[in-house]
Amino acid sequence: MQAAPIAIEERILLTGATGFLGGAVTAQLLAEGHGANLSFLVRADTRDQGLERLRDNLRQHGVGECALQFLHAEQIICGDFLDTAWLPRETPRLMQIERVINCAAVASFSKNPSIWPVNVEGTFAFAEVMSRSKRLKRFLHVGTAMCCGPQQASPISESWSFPDGAEQLVDYTASKAEIERRMSVELPGLPLVVARPSIVVGHRTLGCQASGSIFWVFRMGFALESFTCGLDEQIDVIPVDYCAEALIGLALKPQLRHNLYHVSAGHHAACSFAEIDEAFASANGASPVGARYRKIGVDDLKELAGDFAARIGPANPRLVLRALRLYSGFADLNYLFDNSRLLEEGIALPPRFIDYLDVCVRSSSGVSIATQMQWDFK
Ligand SMILES: NC(=O)c1ccc[n+]([C@@H]2O[C@H](COP(=O)([O-])OP(=O)(O)OC[C@H]3O[C@@H](n4cnc5c(N)ncnc54)[C@H](OP(=O)(O)O)[C@@H]3O)[C@@H](O)[C@H]2O)c1
Predict the structure, then answer these.
(1) Distance, CA 130 to ligand 1 centroid (Å)?
(2) Residue 106 Cβ contacting ligand 1 at under 6 Å
(3) Whose CA is nearest to atom 18 of ligand 1?
């Protein structure tokens, strides 16, 4: 998709730009020449510290020093969704914003006590202030496709109905569903558009350099030659740079047909685990696991623990087992997320995971599986 035609003076506020998706969105906006129009909400004590945190992350996203030096401290708004006492102080600056891309969240499957206060309470407080703006044209909130909960029939279409919180697999997805519900119901003045990415893994040219999130699950499954999904089942994975392009398209396009979009591989670009096995083996110069692969039940995962050290290297077996159990819950859903709404907006077709998986493998060499796993257990 071409750089969206927005008026040159429009100010765009990014939250979560020190993270994986927000970093990729920022890198893309800088490449498209929007740098001077950007503001960033960053957790930091001072604007200078916030700017340094932002620059450190953007280096991981391949942004060159020249573009980094172009950013300046006045573009930083210091703020934390955990304690929103800063909101009244910064409200005048927030009222200058035309478009928000809200990527900030605690994106963790752990039992992190900050999940609800940040993802629901703090996000709502921020959105409530923004809903009072006369200037705001769009509040693009980044949700997650998995907030639909388990027991849905795949392919999944976008829907504003949510399962009961108790049915959600983890607190994170429950919180992401609740904030969408609250913003859509309680903030009628907010020009809300929700984008729900599916599973974001790696980057087409940088691989796992900026984040090893979820890639370690594939490494672990092939190293153990066992997991809870079948090789013939499919998984909906997109790279972060594609996700960023789609989010920018949805944030900047003057008119949209809907207020809720999947950002996903969908039917055409999803890959089967057998295809992923072959691409992974080819990138490693090895043979696919193929017939040696065993589909096992979640209760059988513990029987693999004796092999952890030999197959995946040094790791805390208790943590590995917990991680495998949590991720098996999502992998077993076997969900494809319909992306026809996104494509109808003129956003490019998503690439397939197997087409850039070799880049993820190369960028992960020298990084242990256990180290890479830490991305998802903050
Ligand atoms: N990664 C995926 O596969 C995926 C899939 C679907 C949806 N999503 C959604 O995409 C969004 C971004 O996820 P991500 O993978 O990029 O996560 P991430 O790498 O962990 O980044 C999270 C960002 O949120 C910021 N943040 C966390 N707590 C905050 C707080 N209390 N106040 C203000 N900012 C805070 C972080 O800032 P600090 O640097 O200060 O911690 C960081 O910039 C999330 O909404 C997530 O639900 C991600």
Answers:
(1) 19
(2) yes
(3) 19
> Which two tokens mark 346?
């003129």
Tens of each residue's pLDDT in the chain, 378 residues: 544 555 557 999 999 999 999 999 999 999 999 999 999 999 999 999 999 999 999 999 999 999 999 999 999 999 999 999 999 999 999 999 999 999 999 998 888 999 999 999 999 999 999 999 999 999 999 999 999 999 899 999 999 999 888 888 899 999 999 999 999 999 999 999 999 999 999 999 999 999 999 999 999 999 999 999 999 999 999 999 999 999 999 999 999 999 999 999 999 999 999 999 999 999 999 999 999 999 999 999 999 999 999 999 988 999 999 999 989 988 888 899 999 999 999 999 999 999 999 999 999 999 999 999 999 887
Class assignment of domain 12-208+236-268+335-352? alpha beta
- From 13, 21, 203, the mutation candidate for ligand 1 (largest count of ligand atoms within 8 A of CB) is 21
Answer whether the bond into residue 288 is a cis peptide, omega within 30°.
no
| Closest ligand 1 atom to 378 CA | 20
Minimum-distance ligand 1 atom for the alpha carbon of 117: 31
Cβ(105) to ligand 1 under 6 A? yes
Whether the Cβ atoms of residue 126 and residue 81 lie closer than 8 Å to each other:
yes
- Residue of the CA atom closest to atom 15 of ligand 1: 20
In ligand 1, the atom with minimum distance to the C-alpha of 80 is: 32
* Domain range list for the chain: 12-208+236-268+335-352
AA letter at 368: S
Q: Looking at ligand 1, which residue's alpha carbon is closest to its atom 36?
A: 16
